[in-house]
Structures are given as C-alpha cells and as structure tokens.
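User:
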Amino acid sequence: MRRKTIGRISSENLALTFGYIAFPPEENMASIKFLAEFPGYIWVFPTKNYLNLGIGGELKYGSLLKGILDKFIAIYCPTIRVISRFAAMVPSVRDPEFFSLPCSNEGWVLIGDAAGHVDPISGGGIIYALWGGSLAAKAIKESDPKSYDRLWREEFGKTLIERCKNKDAYYDPTQLEIKLFLGLANKTYSWF
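Assistant: Predicted structure:
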C-alpha cells in the first residue's frame, strides 16, 4: 500500500531483523540484550509452544546479524533446536523529516510499519500500530480520513520525532537496558 501511495521507505530509514523459532520454550527466559557492536538488540521471547529468538539492527549492519545471534545462542541457549528462521526489513527512522510525509488521503490510511510508526530507538512498533489503528478508525468514522495525519501527529508524532533526533545519544546499551527495565524509555507505553 505504501509504495502505491507515498513511495517506499528509503534504505537509510530501514533496519533488518533476523531470527529463529526454536524448541524447547524455556521458562523465564524472556530477555532483551542491547548490543555493544552497533545500535541494535537481541530478543528472546518464549511462548507456550516455542521460543522466538532474534536480532535487529540498521540495514548497514545486516551482514553481522546472524553471526552475533548465533554466538549469543551458543553461549546462552546451547540446548535449543532451531526449527525455522525468519528475516524482515522494518522501519528504523533516522531522519526526523520522514515524519512530515502524509499518512492519509481520500481513500487510504497508512498505520504501523507501513507509516513508519516505529520507535526509532527501541524498534517497538506494535503500540503505534494499535494506537494508529484506533486513530484511523476515528478519522474514518468521521468520514475524514485526511484528519488521521493531524490525529497521529498530535498523539504520538512529537515523541517519534524527538526519539529520532536523539537516537544516537540514547543508544548506550547499559542506559537502554536500565530504562527499559524501569519502564522509563518511552512515555508512549503509558497509553495503556
């Protein structure tokens, strides 16, 4: 949808994720580890039936992701059995002007990853997809899809721009882990 409306997200504003689905799902193993090598992180999320392990970083570091994740697994999860792998490009905005692009017009609305509404520091996007979906529904209900741009900018646009401008300063792995642990990294999460 984005390509047909406002065009692709430039490679400078993209990140790459790579990961595995594995067995067994280990209890109490949920973890996020920020990287010292470059701005990015490893995640380990257990579900009832499997373990999701992955790594994400700016596109320019893509060739390093698999090796770093495999080393992490060898050290911290050596007994898992990989059953599948995945990779995806996701928004990781570096240029604050990116957020001045329109995300709606007559007949269309972009939300979540399609809009680039992903935290520039943490890579978290689910909250913005849900929030944006709620705002898009409001705009559509009022028969004014163009108003979505005003709504998302008022609600969370300033936060995305601020975090984009401060991305490099915030990306100290130790500080991020402390902030994430304390729940102070982003006011957006208080929306719930």
